[in-house]
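2024-03-11 09:14:02 INFO worker-7 job=invfold-0412 stage=load source=structure_tokens
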């Protein structure tokens, strides 16, 4: 079992996205870069990103140059979202998730983001 927000988590997520037909349909013809920042984690702040383009998606630790948007939350919120205890839209509306960058891009890619969230929730991770 991979540790939540570890390099192994990123690899498992990338593999799961590649193997999931619903996600693959959602990314067809899409270009999207999302930078995630998770604050107040057990080992400090964690930066990771989702990069979608040319029919493939990758999740990796680190910074994504030229990201379309950034999404920031605390570790507590990120873990609650992963466990399904928190809803993404509700977390956004209540300020638990901060979004920066091109909000129109986020809105235009909502189905892709919903598929991404679903796949994350299906991973077997140690939080």
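2024-03-11 09:14:09 INFO worker-7 stage=emit residues=127
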């Amino acid at each position: 079992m991979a540790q939540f927000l570890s390099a192994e988590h990123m690899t498992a997520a990338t593999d799961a996205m590649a193997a999931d037909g619903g996600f693959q349909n959602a990314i067809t013809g899409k270009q999207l870069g999302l930078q995630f920042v998770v604050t107040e984690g057990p080992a400090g702040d964690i930066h990771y990103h989702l990069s979608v383009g040319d029919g493939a998606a990758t999740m990796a630790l680190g910074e994504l140059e030229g990201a379309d948007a950034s999404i920031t939350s605390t570790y507590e919120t990120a873990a609650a979202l992963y466990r399904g205890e928190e809803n993404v839209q509700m977390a956004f509306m209540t300020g638990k998730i901060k979004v920066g960058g091109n909000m129109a891009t986020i809105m235009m890619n909502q189905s892709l983001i919903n598929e991404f969230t679903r796949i994350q929730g299906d991973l077997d991770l140690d939080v």
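2024-03-11 09:14:09 INFO worker-7 stage=report msg="The chain has a mean pLDDT of 95."
2024-03-11 09:14:10 INFO worker-7 job finished
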